[in-house]
From TrEMBL:
This is EOGT. Keywords: Endoplasmic reticulum, Signal. Transmembrane segments: none annotated. GO terms for molecular function: protein O-acetylglucosaminyltransferase activity. Residues 1-18 form the signal peptide. One of its GO terms (cellular component) is endoplasmic reticulum lumen. Coiled coil: none annotated. It comes from the Eukaryota.
Length: 394
């Protein structure tokens, strides 16, 4: 009887510390890179017999923005077969492509982080922002929406002094250093974070809503448009790399949509790549004081020279690993099986719309004509939304 007591205790203690490896849920080629960024997990994996990623432990490959990442360990890299007349040299061209259209974006932003507010208190707040306030990460942050009155559906101007802040000393110089050219909605968080204020001791005592899980707040471009909305998703993905390579699904996403009500989105299926909880609109918290343990203000989709709206990408290069990673990540998380492309076959993709514009008028005829040809071997349809189907033919 006495013997069974310590045994029982051992079982309890191991089950408490055990990691649920299935939470990592990444494309298999990203797992070694992820573990490379999380040394503690890598060590844990090497000692835990249950860890399914043992074959990733030997690898030292990396996304390319990590401090310790060597050139020869890069996960994949772009090619620049044609020299650009905009570049001084081939190396210069490669570097420009890397820093503006590939994972170099993450290192460029990381180099430019500034501490906006810090505290020596153990439960104090902290806020850091990228040089033009296009990205911020904070802990113990209060967003006081009790008295705000948004005047537009997407209003970043309704926050006033004292309505965002924390218990920390604000470095006003950081705010003064931001370039006003980047102020507008979809370009930065300037108009929100410029009001960051040191709040009194009791500030986070009376929160109406407390987010104890990590939160991403984002500015969405037009959600009905695939091009624009994927700018949102790609920027959120880069944001997750930027904030210490974290891809947990157990977080909350709040869209900066200030008119109340829900958040509706024809590409709503995509959010499953980023969170297992429903996306909410900031407008649904108007009238409340909202407190965040950990919050990220994500890279907005229309940054000047940003990714990838209005993006002056240097010519002569192709194959960015960032977009490849994004594609693999999305396909993995949505568990989409792809039948093709097939070798020596031409794939035709038809966007079958039922919208006001850009419909194929003779879609029926085209369909019938193609389907009756004997060399058309595979046909798959995926429903992107009620209004849009994608049909692949081979
Ligand atoms: C940001 O990264 C930190 C680790 O440095 C992590 O604890 C936090 O959960 C992340 N925040 C979000 C919103 O993912």
């Amino acid at each position: 009887m006495l013997l069974s007591v310590p045994l029982f205790l051992i079982i309890i203690s191991t089950s408490v510390t055990a990691i649920d490896w299935s939470d990592i849920n990444l494309h298999q080629s990203h797992v070694p890179l992820y573990l490379q960024s999380h040394a503690d997990l890598k060590t844990e994996c090497s000692v835990d017999p249950e860890c399914p990623f043992k074959d990733s432990l030997e690898s030292s490959s990396c996304f390319g923005y990590e401090e310790s990442c060597e050139d020869n360990e890069l996960y994949k890299s772009a090619n620049c077969p044609d020299l650009s007349k905009w570049a001084k040299s081939a190396d210069d061209q490669k570097r420009t492509f890397w820093n503006t259209g590939d994972f170099g974006i993450v290192s460029e932003k990381r180099k430019n982080m500034e501490v906006l507010c810090s505290s020596s208190l153990e439960d104090g707040s902290y806020m850091e922002c990228e040089a033009e306030a296009r990205y911020c990460h904070g802990t113990n942050i209060v967003l006081d929406l009790e008295k705000v009155t948004p005047s537009k559906p997407y209003d970043t101007e309704f926050i006033k002094t004292g309505q965002i802040g924390g218990r920390c000393k604000v470095n006003k110089k950081v705010i003064k250093g931001w370039n006003r050219d980047h102020r507008n909605f979809l370009q930065s968080w300037y108009q929100v974070v410029e009001h960051f204020t040191e709040l009194p001791e009791e500030a986070d005592d009376q929160c109406d809503v407390v987010f104890s899980k990590p939160v991403y707040i984002l500015q969405n471009d037009a959600v009905v448009n695939m091009f624009h909305h994927f700018c949102d998703f790609v920027n959120l993905y880069v944001t997750q790399h930027l904030n210490s390579t974290t891809f947990s699904l157990d977080n909350h996403i709040i869209a900066w949509q200030t008119n109340g009500g829900g958040f509706s989105d024809p590409f709503g299926a995509m959010w499953k790549v980023f969170t297992k909880h429903p996306v909410t609109a900031i407008g649904s918290y108007v009238g409340k004081k909202v407190c965040f343990k950990d919050v990220v203000f994500a890279l907005p989709p229309r940054q000047r020279l940003g990714l990838f709206y209005n993006m002056p990408l240097i010519d002569g290069c192709y194959g960015t690993s960032l977009f490849r990673a994004f594609n693999e990540h999305v396909m993995h998380r949505l568990a989409i099986q792809q039948a093709g492309p097939l070798r020596d076959k031409v794939r035709i993709t038809i966007l079958s719309r039922q919208s006001q514009y850009r419909n194929i008028l003779n879609e029926q005829e085209v369909g019938v004509s193609i389907l009756t040809r004997s060399y058309v071997s595979i046909l798959t349809r995926s429903y992107v939304s009620i209004r849009l189907r994608v049909v692949y033919l081979y």
